[in-house]
Amino acid sequence: ELTTVRVQDPRVQNEGSWNSYVDYKIFLHTNSKAFTAKTSCVRRRYREFVWLRRQLQKNAGLVPVPELPGKSTFFVGSMDEFIEKRRQGLQQFLEKVVQNVVLLSDSRLHLFLQSQLSVPEIEACVQGQGSQTVTGAILHYAMSNCGWVQEEETRP
């Protein structure tokens, strides 16, 4: 089984305002039976990664959860360098997470990687309070996924 996860295309949102942030495209391609959709493409920001890591830690017991890159607001170098370094750290984090069988069993991880649900919506879904099941939410997103749309447009 092979799972490729890429953190790409960092974008500054609300640039120039006090509430600007960077989000990243997470592209997943797999043939693993653990995943509902075989390809997915979502955008997530750093604080969502922080939430995910906290949830994985809570549910993983004694299994160590990989570290995230630091949240330093003071850095040496340019903003572009900082964003690129963080992107690399987020990719390494996800690469380690998807290789860990215990962490892979967490449905929050699957919703994080394969749906565009917000953190509160992921929580509601996992607790059975959402309008969809975990699998339903992932399949619903897969049908409207950016990766699928691009494939459709490039066919002759």
TrEMBL record:
Belongs to the sorting nexin family. Its main location: cytoplasm. This is SNX11 protein. It is found in: Cytoplasm; Endomembrane system; Endosome. InterPro entries: PX_dom, PX_dom_sf, SNX10/11. Pfam families: PX. The keyword Cytoplasm applies. GO terms for molecular function: phosphatidylinositol phosphate binding. Keywords: Cytoplasm, Endosome, Lipid-binding, Membrane, Protein transport, Transport. CDD domains: PX_SNX10. It comes from Heliornis fulica.
